[in-house]
Request: fold
Amino acid sequence: MGSWGMRRSPAATDTAQAVLVTPWNVAMALDGIIGGLLLQSSGVTAVAVSAAALQGPVFKLGPALGGRADRR
Reply:
């Protein structure tokens, strides 16, 4: 039995993994396409600026969403 007292079938595990992995792979592909288009059209500086702009909300919201290991 699992940690919640439920039985898990191998098919359910495979499906859950596919549901998680597929959006991740799509996001990585889009990241490469968008980054390449941005690099081609605007140059290296635009890629660096956009990366910094996208990281700001992640660093700000990460702790609020439970990303801190030292919560009390």
Observations:
- The radius of gyration is 19 Å.
